[in-house]
Design a protein that fits this description.
By secondary structure, the chain is mainly alpha-helical. The chain is built from five helices and two strands.
């Protein structure tokens, strides 16, 4: 899997502009996970975020307009947790263990 992740990381370079913003959401699941990890790594553990704050972090990392897709995927892949009403978000405590093979070690 490690070799595959390295290949995906290399391919992902084509998905980002010169400012490091994501140009389009990848269609392959492993590449999507890597992209979502790049975003969640910018969030603080043990902190509660409003939906507006999460949206702003996502907006700063993508150059297309589907913030809701990225937020929803971060929740579905269990990178983020949230209250049922969506009023509060947080970084899931064990996401690093769940996705250890996807984390880029540069």
């Amino acid at each position: 899997m490690e070799k595959t992740v390295q290949i995906y990381n290399k391919k992902l370079d084509n998905y980002f502009d010169s400012n490091g913003k994501l140009l389009q959401y990848p269609s392959k699941r492993p590449m999507r996970i890597i992209v979502l990890i790049k975003i969640v790594e910018q969030m603080e553990a043990n902190r509660k975020y409003t939906e507006k704050e999460v949206n702003e972090i996502i907006r700063l990392n993508i150059s297309f307009g589907d913030i809701e897709l990225i937020r929803r995927e971060m929740y579905q892949y269990k990178l983020l947790g949230r209250l049922r009403d969506g009023s509060e978000y947080w970084v899931e405590a064990n996401w690093r263990n769940a996705y250890a093979e996807y984390i880029r070690e540069d």
